[in-house]
Amino acid sequence: MTNTSNNVQFINEKVTADAKQFIEDCENDYQSIINKIVKRIIEEDGREIIMLAGPSSAGKTTTAKRLKEGLMEKGVTTYILSLDDFYLNRADIPYLPDGTQDYETVDALDLERLERDLNSLLRGETVETPIFDFTTGKRSDKEFNTITLGDEDVVIIEGLHALNPVITEKVQGKLLKVYINVSSRIYDENGEILLNKRSFRFLRRMIRDYKFRASSVDNTYKLWKNVTAGEDKYLFPYRDNADIKGNTIHLYEPCVIKNQALPLLRDSEISPEFRDDAEKLCKALESFCNISEDEVPCDSLLREFLGNKK
User: Fold this and answer.
1) C-beta of residue 161 within 8 angstroms of C-beta of residue 235
2) Which of 36, 131, 142, 170 has minimal CB crowding within 10 Å?
3) What pLDDT does 277 receive?
4) How many angstroms separate the CA atoms of 93 and 101, rounded?
5) In whole angstroms, what is the distance from residue 241 CA to residue 19 CA?
């Protein structure tokens, strides 16, 4: 359902009137989510694990970092672990019926190791958690994270499967379950959807993949089908298990993202099956006023995808 703020006309009016103030307002909206979660955490006594889940490109990495910063400012020692580091070695990843490996399934994780490590942390024991080397496709034999939780310390576990009962029901101790996503659509002046929730995340991921993972636009498109299928199967059924939900949309982001997204979508070699969608995204992005990337704060969630400020 559309409202007065999530339509292109409202966004363009805000940009035209005072772009810097609009950016500040959007960033404050996101920070208010962080503050709410931090407040909830510090209200609890004792060691605590924060399970932070969200789909691809929702902003889990930045959210975990900002939560840690907020907690540390309150005097709460905080650690971050990624579920990706608990991947099985690539050779042991389960297979789909078509013969390809299913990297999205919760069974791609070392669930036994994960359960053991999380419960050990909650008991205050020193734990050496794994570090996965995505270059070799194996868990590192030489590197690991050494963590000991003090009586009031917190560890944030972020990943696609952080709300999955296969994991959460095996943890004996305090858990706060957090779910984040891009939870708003942008509408045109006629009330039709201009950018849907997944479009936002695709654009974020497309830019990040190209800039930081040497992945073409076409490859991002090819991967996206399995990524979203994995979310539908392994994440979205459990999102209502969350204690707190947060919307990571930044309403000004189409005005910035278009600067990188439009050239990629227009100039890349894209398979015929994806061209209609690419053209649709280009048309949607052209509807927004432009904001220079230089205006995006250094600590913005959008920097996770755009890269650091030059």
Assistant:
1) yes
2) 142
3) 97
4) 6
5) 37
Supply the pTM of this predicted model. 0.94
Write down the mean pLDDT value for the chain: 94
- Beta pairing class for 127-133 and 138-147: antiparallel
Radius of gyration of the chain (CA): 20
In tens, the pLDDT along 61-106 reads 999 999 999 999 999 999 999 999 999 998 999 988 888 888 889 9
Identify the pLDDT of residue 134.
82
Q: Residue 83 carries which side chain, given as an amino acid letter?
A: L
Determine contact, residues 43/287, Cβ cutoff 8 Å. no
**b/e code 264-299 from CB counts within 10 Å (16+ = b):** bbeebebeeebeeebeebeebbebbbebebeebeee
Ranges of beta strands (E only) in the chain are: 48-53, 78-82, 127-133, 138-147, 154-158, 175-181, 186-187, 193-195, 244-247
DSSP for 86-152, written as a single string: GBPPGGGS-B-TTS-B-SSSGGGB-HHHHHHHHHHHHTT--EEEEEEETTTTEEEEEEEEEE---TT
Q: Residue 15 — left, alpha, or beta (φ > 0 → left; ψ -120 to 50 → alpha)?
A: alpha
**Residue 64 structure tokens:** 């975990």
The per-residue pLDDT for 4 is: 65
Ramachandran category for residue 79: left, alpha or beta (phi over 0 → left; psi -120 to 50 → alpha): beta
Nearest in space to 300 (alpha carbons), one of 253, 264, 246? 253
Q: Angle formed by the axes of helices 60-73 and 8-42, to 10°?
A: 50
Model confidence pLDDT, tens digit, residues 220-252:
999 998 899 999 999 999 999 999 999 999 999
